[in-house]
Specification:
The chain is built from 13 helices and 17 strands. With about 450 residues, it is α/β, with parallel strands linked by helices. The protein folds into 2 domains: about 160 residues, Aspartate Aminotransferase, domain 1 (Alpha-Beta Complex), CATH 3.90.1150.10; about 250 residues, Type I PLP-dependent aspartate aminotransferase-like (Major domain) (Aspartate Aminotransferase, domain 2). Bound molecules: pyridoxal-5'-phosphate. It comes from Pedobacter lusitanus. Its EC number is 5.4.3.8.
């Protein structure tokens, strides 16, 4: 392929820009979740009008092949008929009762029958809520206060988890948001990923104080940071030896890497798991689960309080049931993962042949574009912030070629079942062109 050096003209964003100006009057930064504001890439955010299969259309009528998938939930693509029909059918009977429905049992059965790590679960309305509740459960169960998290893992926006590492190997968290009391952050210990020495030191220093260690089974919110299997094994052992519960936050990996998520991938045995995103089929659902014994601590059986007006909402349950039913069909993950692997490896082969400092890290149907020449990136410090400038250029070139990636180089992308080989081939070509432009002055 000849080296491509021509940028395409910018797509029209007139209507999106107009909507964005309006939105700024109503919402801080014009958005209801910060990354949507396009602060790390060029131009105004695109206002999406419609999605179908692997495509989205913005307010200006531009069409894109979408690899953001609403940040993960849309493993079947946009607006799949099976999910839509079940949702509409369910809505005919009303939208919320605040009382139990059979649909909750049905979704719970789909989850529990196919996941050996959970005997009982509780549905919430978001991943953040699920994680926040799992932490409370761990504290209630162990009667300990401190938790340990990893730099480079995201667990939603609850106070205890909006903390980052200070300087040093094992640190009390420093708040990463205004409004989080320092005293809260001090209950969270932060260590780097994939580092057994740091874990050993933390457990020595906070002996008998750690209620839980929380990790994204495969960290995928700050790049894709694959952990060594031996490290995950070590993590399990040190938790067990110290009476500390291990929480696998599978909000992004759950049902993405199969029904047992990253735990299944590593053959690990977390004590508590949290799910969200795919579980809700595009509607707001989260969940945490554990053994019957641990879940026995949750109110009204036990003393750990947790509740929700819309928890187990029937319409959201219906979407989850329809989506998970599709995922259970034989060969679903095999086919999806094979497609995604071919896509990622094709791009990598091209970049390698051109000698570009660019890696496609991938697992299952998750991929991450990293502007690096490292063979592995396993902790947050391995990511060079300066490389994000290259992502920014790539993002613009891709939008101009009809490809939509999440608007930040720290975010992973997702291949869905709705991406056909034809569209993946199209996307690949656009990505190769964009890479040529990013590296034209290398
Ligand atoms: C998305 C995500 C969350 C937060 O879920 P929300 O539904 O956005 O609150 C928590 N943990 C992980 C691993 C996630 O990917």
């Amino acid at each position: 392929m000849p080296v491509n050096t021509g940028s395409k003209p910018d797509i029209s964003r007139e209507k999106s820009a107009e909507l964005y100006e309006k939105a700024k009057n109503y919402f801080p930064g014009g958005v209801n979740s910060p990354v949507r504001a396009f602060k790390s890439v060029y131009g105004t955010p695109l206002f999406i009008q419609k999605g179908d299969g692997c495509f989205v259309w913005d307010a200006d009528g531009n069409q894109f092949i979408d690899f953001c998938g609403s940040w993960g939930p849309l493993i079947l693509g946009h607006n799949p008929a099976k999910v839509r029909e079940k949702v509409i059918e369910t809505m005919q009977n009303g939208m919320s009762f605040g009382a139990p429905t059979a649909l909750e049992n049905e979704l719970a059965e789909l989850v529990i029958k196919n996941n050996k790590h959970v005997e009982k679960i509780r549905f919430t309305s978001s991943g953040t809520e699920a994680v926040m509740s799992a932490i409370r459960l761990a504290r209630g169960y162990t009667k300990r206060d401190k938790i340990l998290k990893f730099e480079g893992c995201y667990h939603g926006h609850s106070d205890s988890l909006l903390v980052k590492a200070g300087s040093g190997l094992v640190t009390f968290g420093e708040t990463s948001s205004l409004g989080v009391p320092k005293s809260f952050a001090e209950e969270t210990i932060v260590v780097p990923l994939n580092d057994t020495a740091a874990l050993t030191q933390a457990f020595a220093q906070f002996k008998d104080q750690l209620a839980a260690v929380i990790i994204e089974g495969i960290p995928a919110n700050n790049g894709l940071l694959m952990q060594d299997p031996a490290y995950i094994e070590f993590l399990q052992k040190i938790c067990k030896d110290n009476g500390t519960l291990l929480i696998f936050d599978e909000v992004i990996t759950g049902f993405r890497l199969g029904f047992e998520g990253a735990a299944g991938y590593y053959n690990a045995k977390p004590d508590i798991v949290t799910y969200g995103k795919i579980l809700g089929g595009g509607l707001p659902v989260g969940m945490y689960g554990a053994s019957a014994e641990i879940m026995g601590q949750i109110s009204p059986d036990g003393g750990v309080y947790q509740a929700g007006t819309l928890s187990g909402n029937p319409v959201a349950m219906a979407a989850g049931i329809a989506q998970l039913t599709e995922l259970l069909k034989s060969g679903f993950y095999k086919e999806l993962n094979a497609k995604a692997t071919e896509f990622a490896e094709g791009i990598q082969r091209f970049a390698t042949a051109r000698n570009y400092k660019f890696k496609v890290f991938h697992v299952g149907s998750i991929f991450w574009f990293a502007f690096t020449d490292r063979d592995k990136i396993q902790c947050a410090d391995d990511i060079d912030p300066a490389s994000m400038e290259k992502f920014k250029v790539m993002h613009r070139e891709l939008l101009n070629r009809g490809i939509y990636l999440g608007p930040s180089g720290y975010e992973v992308g997702f291949v869905s079942a709705a991406h056909t080989k034809i569209e993946l081939e199209k996307a690949k070509r656009a990505i190769l062109e964009a890479l040529d432009i990013v590296f034209r002055n290398k």
